[in-house]
Amino acid sequence: MMRMNTLRSWMVLTALSWSLAAGAVDITLLPDPVLQERYEVLTHELRCMQCMNNSIADSPVGLASDLRREVREQLIAGKSDDEIRAYMVQRYGNVILFSPPLDSSSAWVWILPGVAVLAGLFIGVRIVRRRSSLVDTDDSSVEAEDAR
Amino acid sequence: MNRFILPVVIFVALAGVLYVGVRHSPNKSTMVSALLGKPAPAFELPVLGTPGRTIRSTDFAGQPWVLNVWGTWCVECRIEHDALLAIAREQRVPLVGLNWKDEDDAAQQWLASLGNPYVVTAVDKEGRTAIDFGVYGAPETFFIDAAGLVQYRHVGAMTAEVWQREFLSRLPQRGLP
């Protein structure tokens, strides 16, 4: 029982230190809760260009904190979310957005899965049709089975 | 035989798509600058080692110039430094330094002990000009043409080969002697 409790308290302590470490990346608090909410959303939408698979909200690198500062200052200056996104895209390209806009260069990413599903359906239907027609025409073996 | 054609075609098409995806995945060395063909961002920054003096992006208008983003904290910058010194000796194009998020003392000591390849070094302590240029990791080197447009961006250490292939080739041909 004693050991169980020790184990449990270690687990709690570990979890606590993880959450503290994660929170330490960005401790920004904006004066207005509405701005704070928009700040949270925006910083999670923008890629940390140095570490690629982190958002600027999750990344401890210097550039991410500079970009967070930029988001913070522009929010306080009254810029809209789209203006801030456009500011980032203008400098870093669409790759800075975790969900890039649908345009001619990214359209195939959306179209291809649909085409693949349709092609799969088409092939599946053809195989089923061919097999069922085989059963219809080739009934000699079926009759032989029945006779047995 | 006929029934193998469709699966093979699909396989080849899929392999092609995946190959293109892998080759073009965002990668530190292949990512193209969003500024290509666009005017170089305007800046006015203090000059390293000369208190009170500033340098502006328009100071080099009318001629091609090269901007090299560096910092004393950047390991790759140390690696490319000898290549930059060799480039500076050629005197083909002004090489401007952008000292990114650094300490002035450390930067001046770096240039004093390793040699200074830059005609002038702008100090970007807060990293705002670097953001305007879309810099995401030093070293980065930009080629700006006589019209003030960004024509090329190299990410990572400069080498004689990259300089020859991507920068010298973009300079107007020098008249034969």
Describe the structure.
The complex is a heterodimer of chains A (148) and B (177). By secondary structure, chain A is mainly α. Chain A has two domains: 28-101, Cytochrome C biogenesis protein (Helicase, Ruva Protein, domain 3, Orthogonal Bundle), CATH 1.10.8; 103-148. Helices cover 68% and strands 0% of the residues of chain A. Chain A is built from six helices and no strands. The model of chain A has no long low-confidence stretch (mean pLDDT 81). With 177 residues, chain B is α/β, with parallel strands linked by helices. Chain B has a single domain (31-170), classed as Glutaredoxin (3-Layer(aba) Sandwich). Helix content of chain B is 35%, strand content 22%. Chain B has helices spanning 2-23, 75-90, 104-114, 128-132, 160-167, and strands spanning 44-47, 50-56, 65-70, 95-100, 120-124, 140-144, 150-155. In chain B, the strands form two sheets. Chain B has a five-stranded mixed sheet. The longest helix of chain B has 22 residues, at 2-23. Chain B is elongated. The N and C termini of chain B lie far apart (67 Å). The mean pLDDT of chain B is 91. At the A-B interface, helix 3, helix 4 and helix 5 of A face helix 1 and helix 4 of B.
